[in-house]
Amino acid sequence: TTRDLEATNIKRIGIMGGTFNPIHNGHLIIAEQVASQLALDQVLFLPNNIPPHVDKKKAIEGNVRAEMVNLAIEDNSHFKLETIELAKGGVSYSYNTVLALKKKYPATSFYFIIGADEVEYLPKWYQIDELIKEVIFVAVRRHGYQGKTKYQVIWVDAPLIEISSTDIRKRIEQHTSIKYLVPQKVANFIEDRRLYQND
Ligand code: ATP
Ligand code: MG
């Protein structure tokens, strides 16, 4: 029937938000697992602006973080960089961003991908009770977090990956290798630009 046809025309898009400071293989692995297990057509990688109070040295400019995202995702045709928050500037709330994305991508169901740390933080998200009506939250486990929540989330079984941007920044400062923790192109970029170094 026409209704069935319409239903199949609804796109399924994942939203992978983060500061990506820098993007790492954990982000890529979970996005790919969610996309494959929930049959998503696309995953949008959405870099957030970093609030001004964050350490200057470690808060790499938005366009540079976005460039690293592009290097990381360029070999995956389902992954796309979405710069809507960077373009807007200032602080963005996911709720407002999602409303803007719904206009930009009509006839779409959105799957908001988060790690267990963010699952626990959901009660603090701006307008969470409204946001939860607009997207389906998809969660993956993360070391050190129970991910207990009263909100409805779909748990997807992805490998438990103990990689974080914080750990990567620390390793760079200590001149320890980050090879295999981030895509090689990202590692090269960080080295060429001497990002996250103390000196
Ligand atoms: P930082 O240490 O700077 O906070 P991060 O590694 O947590 O960086 P973010 O950009 O903050 O990376 O994370 C974006 C999203 O990806 C969040 O929802 C976070 O929970 C999730 N995420 C990041 N790394 C992992 C991981 N290793 N396993 C599961 N989820 C992750
Ligand atoms: Mg984080």
Q: What do you see in this structure?
A:
- There is one protein chain.
- By secondary structure, the protein is α/β, with parallel strands linked by helices.
- The chain has one domain (2-192): HUPs (Rossmann fold).
- Helices cover 40% and strands 17% of the residues.
- It is built from nine helices and six strands; from the N terminus they run αβαβαβααβααββαα.
- It has helices at residues 2-9, 25-37, 62-73, 84-88, 94-104, 116-121, 128-134, 165-173, 184-192; strands at residues 11-18, 42-47, 79-81, 108-115, 136-140, 153-155.
- The chain has a six-stranded parallel beta sheet.
- Strand 1, helix 2 and strand 2 form a beta-alpha-beta unit.
- Helix 5 packs parallel to helix 7.
- It is globular and about 65 Å long.
- The N and C termini lie far apart (65 Å).
- The relative contact order is 0.19.
- The mean pLDDT is 94.
- Bound molecules: adenosine-5'-triphosphate (ATP) and magnesium ion (MG).
- Adenosine-5'-triphosphate binds at residues 18-21, 26-27, 30, 114-115, 117-118, 140, 142, 161, 163-166.
Layout of secondary structure:
Elements (H helix, E strand, L loop, with lengths): L1 H8 L1 E8 L6 H13 L4 E6 L14 H12 L5 E3 L2 H5 L5 H11 L3 E8 H6 L6 H7 L1 E5 L12 E3 L9 H9 L10 H9 L7
Parallel strand pairs: 1-2, 1-4, 2-3, 4-5, 5-6
The structure holds adenosine-5'-triphosphate and magnesium ion (MG).
The site of adenosine-5'-triphosphate (ATP) has 18 residues, from helix 2, strand 4, helix 6 and helix 8.
